[in-house]
Amino acid sequence: VSTQVGIVGAGPAGLLLAHLLHLRGIESVVLEARSRDYVENRLRAGVLEQGTADLLTATGLGERMRRQGLVHDGIFLRFAGRSHRIDFRELTGKAILVYGQHEVVRDLVAARLAYGGPLRFDVDGVRVEGLTSHRPTIRFRDASREEVELTCDFIAGCDGFHGVCRPSIPPSAIHFFEREFPFAWLGILAEAPPSSTELVYAHHERGFALLSMRSPTVSRLYLQCAPNEDLGDWSDDRIWSELRTRLATRDGFALKDGPILQRGITPMRGFVAEPMRFGRLFLAGDAAHIVPPTGAKGLNLAVADVQWLAEALGAFFRSGDETLLEQYSARCLQRVWKAERFSSWMTAMLHRVTGQSDYDYRVQLAELDYIASSKSAQATLAENYVGLPFS
Ligand code: FAD
Ligand code: DHB
Hints:
Layout: E1 2-8, H1 12-23, E2 28-31, H2 36-41, E3 47-49, H3 50-58, H4 63-68, E4 70-72, E5 74-79, E6 82-87, H5 88-92, E7 96-98, H6 101-114, E8 119-120, E9 124-129, E10 137-141, E11 147-157, E12 175-190, E13 200-202, E14 209-215, E15 218-225, H7 236-247, E16 260-274, E17 277-278, E18 281-283, E19 289-290, H8 298-319, H9 323-350, H10 358-373, H11 375-385
Parallel strand pairs: 1-2, 1-11, 2-8, 5-13, 11-18
Antiparallel strand pairs: 3-7, 4-7, 5-6, 9-10, 10-11, 12-15, 12-16, 13-14, 14-15, 16-19, 17-18
Helix pairs in contact: 1-6, 1-8, 8-9, 10-11
The structure holds flavin-adenine dinucleotide and 3,4-dihydroxybenzoic acid.
The site of flavin-adenine dinucleotide has 30 residues, from α1 and α8.
């Protein structure tokens, strides 16, 4: 079997790339290790930059998103028991859309299947070979355990941080930049109406907390915890009590609770692979870079990458012009590093670090107070949060 673009991974990056290529008349095959049910229910990010939402709408994927997504014109920073609103609309003219990543994935899978685009779940043993040749291949076992060889013009490595594509690049041809943060997030999804109209990023002496949501009846909440935290140590009562403490305000903020539907622990790391290309293999999304989640950039970066990649592959298949393919990595990395910067900054400002001196703690509070009182500081935060321009 052969195709123009072999895509490894059916997360947002792989599925959206397949869709953008289809709109340009380019064939692709998407290979996914997990089941359809698994990827459609995997709980992850929830904030779409306006540019991301606009792209999904412009490419025919926005129907359910526009109905069910929640448009937010700002966020709250909460510290020292008070809330301070950052008004994105006023400061940037833009907004964000709260819509779960798994909903985006469901919309993408439905679109792919509606036009009969090849999308194979439950594949196993994926290997990518001949990356510097003109006909790279992907070998895998399909759902019925048949060995398949897929010959491609290009391979897109959209298989996330733990995928096989990035490790298939010879170490001498790629460089990794990495930072582990000394804490993690315990995240829950709860059947409880959101306790705030907009997201709340809370600084507290016991650690960071984040109030987010998925719908008018479902809340998504996060707590800073230790990187090696055992979920078993966290009863429902302990989770709610800790959230209540960290999100408390002087004017009696009331946190609505309810049954916890899902829970998990997410490690925090920054990671960038350079370049995002080796021969005819192009990396996109988490396969190439990870941001700490404070600032909600991960999914949006994946979308920006595949937008460039689809454009570059489009130019190549139209005219044989490789200029955009050659620029792909540098173009993506410019935006990636700015998101790494923003996410690291938000993380440093809002989290409690073990062993932090009283001096550093005071500086953290002063920084938050500065943002709360300065329109210029708010504009900087807002401009990055709603998403830097795509070009
Ligand atoms: P993924 O979504 O990881 O997709 C990669 C796909 O490749 C997966 O479906 C995987 O099953 C598949 N795959 C892997 N290996 C193989 C293989 N060998 N063969 C075939 N298929 C393979 N971002 C935020 O902004 N906010 C958050 O709250 C947030 N929470 C997160 C929680 C977790 C647990 C994780 C892991 C990430 C979170 N992120 C969050 C980041 C965000 O979800 C990612 O940036 C986004 O999923 C990137 O999309 P992607 O398509 O590049 O990668
Ligand atoms: C969500 C996740 C984030 O990392 C963030 O910064 C804001 C919201 C969420 O899952 O809703």
